[in-house]
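Reply to thread "Modeling small-molecule complexes from scratch"

Following up on the discussion above, here's a worked example others can learn from. I took a protein sequence and the SMILES for magnesium ion and predicted the complex. Inputs first:
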Amino acid sequence: MTCRLRLQSILGVSRSSICERRFSPARTKPRVWFSTSAYRAEVGMERSDRSKVSDGMVVVGDPQLLENKKAAIRNAGPGKLQVIADFDATLTKYRINGCCGQTSHNLLQQSNPEYDIKRQELYEYYHPLEFSPIIPIEEKTKLMVEWWEKTHALLIEGGLTCDDIKKSVESATIEFREGVFELFEFLEEIGVPVLIFSAGLADIIEEVLRQKLRKSFKNIKIVSNRMIFSKDGHLVSFKGKTIHVLNKNEHALDMAAPLHDHLGGNDGPINDNASVKKRTNVLLLGDHMGDLGMSDGLNYENRIAVGFLNDNIEKSIGNYQEAFDVVYLNDAPMWGVVELVSQICSSENH
Ligand SMILES: [Mg+2]
């Protein structure tokens, strides 16, 4: 069964109806959409009903603008499209069994637990500084570099091994959102590259992908801090410039590395960085306002930004609705994005 046919059965609608489902032109005012069961049913709900937020809700601030962007991307074809995604709490779930899931940053456990304590102490000191409203950005950037470099030094000093990473991921509380596998599979089938940007550690993200998805996708590249190991599997250094929370968008494309190389895939990369830069239509996925900057290095023509607002919904929904074209609430699954991709990659309109 092809990926397209599987999507058809997963979404519970025919291929043509996936592609033809549109927001009604009459719906020009911002509305909140309520999906009761993984996009099999939609019921319109006005803004004033935000207090009724529940699982699977999606907010579209300007349906007409979204429709225009979708049409432009669809008309240009999948050959012009790329997906840029944040990793933690965007591709992965924010909550697992009612508790906050771990991130690629905090799941790592070294063989020597003293070093976990030291890294936690750094976190407790620097994390409040990251969100301080009174520290100027230049100073904050210096502090973030300091934090990341000290953390990386502790990983080396503590003798981190490849095996530590494997075991840490095995015991971590981290899961992908439902539909992520199908999204990657569909994008691979139609030759659309996915760049995953993270200020965490590429090696950990790759291990999470390997263990949780059990498939290497040749269209996925990780842009994150990459480790260099000695022959006996001990961390000895890091490759290239440190990527931290405040610079993860700068020069990130140049640091992209093909994931499948690391995973030992046999096929060559389907896209190099240059061709990625030529893909001027972007589907961006993020859970923070700062993730919108992930496409800054590209001179894009059209961009659909999808935001996952996982927490503090009442406080943040206004800003998210302004900044993102589509906002998913309450740790929603990825099915809405699967459907969106299916719509904008429809071959029926070009
Ligand atoms: Mg995130």
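What I'd highlight from this example: Residues 84 and 215 are 19 Å apart (CA to CA). The domain at 102-170 is CATH 1.10.150.340 (DNA polymerase; domain 1). Questions welcome below.
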